[in-house]
Amino acid sequence: MPGTDDNACREIAEQIDHARPQWLVLWGSYSRHFWAFPLFEMRPRLLVYASYPNALLARMDEAERRYRIQPGE
Fold this sequence. Notes:
This protein is 40% helix and 21% strand. By secondary structure, the protein is of the alpha+beta class. The protein starts with 5 loop residues before the first helix and ends in a 6-residue tail after the last helix.
């Protein structure tokens, strides 16, 4: 997101973080990416990142579907 306001991106990351309590979501000022760290067990352990919020959400959903460890596994 070239030319993006860091404060606006941090606010977006906070909104996603609040909406998705099973993830820690941050904006990387240096990397210029949104980052999501799962707060639940998944195998393999993944960090999810994307340049745009909608892409991050899609990748978070995909990671949960594919890799989240279900009780009893």
